[in-house]
Amino acid sequence: MARSALTRDEVLDTAAALVKEHGPDALTMRRLAAELGTAVTSIYWHVGNRESLLDALVERTVADLGTLRPRGADPAERIVSVARLLRRALRERPHLVAMVHERGLTERMFLPAQRALIHEAHAAGLRGARAADLVRAVQFQVVGHVLVERNRERAPAQSPAETDLWSAQAAGADADAAADPALTEVLAAPVDTERLFLTAVRALVAGLLA
């Protein structure tokens, strides 16, 4: 028996969860109806056909990225917080972000983050080209880092692995590696992408605000 209390937001929430976990190809009206315990006709009534549903998910993703709220005691900290929040948002919804990109709405999606960065650039005393450079540099740093992370995660298993290669260097196969055992120890460990991201963004922001 079809449920009667279904709402549009509930349909979109469930559809977004399916796309996040399995990708847009897994989102069919029949599967969505099964997840919601309702009839397919009820889905159509709330969101229209599948293309209309995908459009609604794209609009919601764009809106979600407009809710980033900077935090920190000074402009530098708040800029880093925007970068961190943007990275997290992109990492959490790669399939939805890809759908936004395919529909030509990428720049619109990034506009709220750009506005937040502009506000902090002005608070730090930057104007004109210097402020624009900060906005774009931070955005490119975030997007580039996310793309590298995604590519590393999707890459086939390496043999020998990066950690194995650096372990061999630390064993004495390379003079520079032998001279800096602390460096090779870190390179032989798994990459802490969150720490690396924050290190890079903080250095970038400090340089641009100097």
Tell me the count of domains: 2
Could you state the order of secondary-structure elements as H and E?
Answer: HHHHHHHHHHHH
Ends distance = 65 Å
Shape category: flat
**What structural class do the secondary elements suggest?**
mainly alpha
Q: Specify Rg, calculated over alpha carbons.
A: 22 Å
* Poorly predicted parts: none
Q: How many strand elements?
A: 0
Q: What is the residue-mean pLDDT, rounded to a whole number?
A: 89
How would you describe this structure to a colleague?
By secondary structure, the protein is mostly helical. The protein folds into 2 domains: 8-64, Orthogonal Bundle (Arc Repressor Mutant, subunit A), CATH 1.10.10.60; 75-209. It is 76% helix and 0% strand. The chain contains 12 helices and no strands. It has helices at residues 8-22, 29-36, 40-47, 50-64, 75-92, 94-102, 106-123, 128-154, 162-173, 175-179, 181-187, 193-209. It starts with 7 loop residues before the first helix and ends with a helix.
Task: Kindly list the characteristics that best describe this protein.
210 residues, mainly alpha, Arc Repressor Mutant, subunit A, 2 domains, 76% helix, 0% strand
Q: What is the fold's blueprint, element by element?
A:
Blueprint: H1 8-22, H2 29-36, H3 40-47, H4 50-64, H5 75-92, H6 94-102, H7 106-123, H8 128-154, H9 162-173, H10 175-179, H11 181-187, H12 193-209
Helix pairs in contact: 2-3, 4-6, 5-7, 5-8, 5-12, 7-8, 8-12, 9-11
